[in-house]
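Quick one, probably user error.
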């Protein structure tokens, strides 16, 4: 039902805002920063260069910024989100660069939602944020299930660590207070996955976050 509501909200926003163009200024800046980093490196950085090329294909390379139709902007944003999911499993500098560009997409979309697009687009954006936060945290739970003596158990330490490491991304979707509440609830229910399991890993990450 939640996914259907979000889909309906975007359909309404698209219909009402037919012809709306998104100003991708923040994305353009993020792409420029990525380009500067890559120009200083002697390594191939294939994944990062692919991100840069795809982003420039949307906003346009060189001076000036191409205004992007809402449908195209959102589709490109969804593709970048899927790319981040794949990079999560590999790690490396491309992941950090992809997250920076992705956050810039949200900045531009938030800005558009305060403009002529009005309340309908803002409603769709807000609903999407809640949905994506829920889906992401749910995935953290799913990927933190481990088999102990043939019984599947939740590695709460692992969930908290994932939230802490990706707090910058989650903060684009949820208020700080909501994220803190999730972490606090989890920390109150921690039990070692295995005898003697260290509990310091998530504490160190949280302290550094």
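Nope, works fine. Designed sequence:
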């Amino acid at each position: 039902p939640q996914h259907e509501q979000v889909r309906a909200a975007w359909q309404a926003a698209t219909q009402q805002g037919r012809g709306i163009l998104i100003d991708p200024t923040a994305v353009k800046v993020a792409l420029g920063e990525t380009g500067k980093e890559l120009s200083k490196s002697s390594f191939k950085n294939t994944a990062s260069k692919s991100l840069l090329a795809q982003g420039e294909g949307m906003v346009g390379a060189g001076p000036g910024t191409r205004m992007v139709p809402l449908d195209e902007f959102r589709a490109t944003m969804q593709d970048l989100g899927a790319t981040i999911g794949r990079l999560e499993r590999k790690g490396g500098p491309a992941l950090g660069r992809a997250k920076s560009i992705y956050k810039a997409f949200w900045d531009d979309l938030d800005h558009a939602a305060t403009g002529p697009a009005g309340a309908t687009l803002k409603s769709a954006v807000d609903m999407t944020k809640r949905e994506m936060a829920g889906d992401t945290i749910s995935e953290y739970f799913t990927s933190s299930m481990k088999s102990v003596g043939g019984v599947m158990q939740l590695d709460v330490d692992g969930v908290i660590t994932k939230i802490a490491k990706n707090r910058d991304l989650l903060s684009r979707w949820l208020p700080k207070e909501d994220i803190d509440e999730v972490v606090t609830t989890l920390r109150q229910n921690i039990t070692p996955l295995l005898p003697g399991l260290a509990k310091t890993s998530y504490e160190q990450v949280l302290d550094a976050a």
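Residues 146 and 152 are 5 Å apart (CA to CA).
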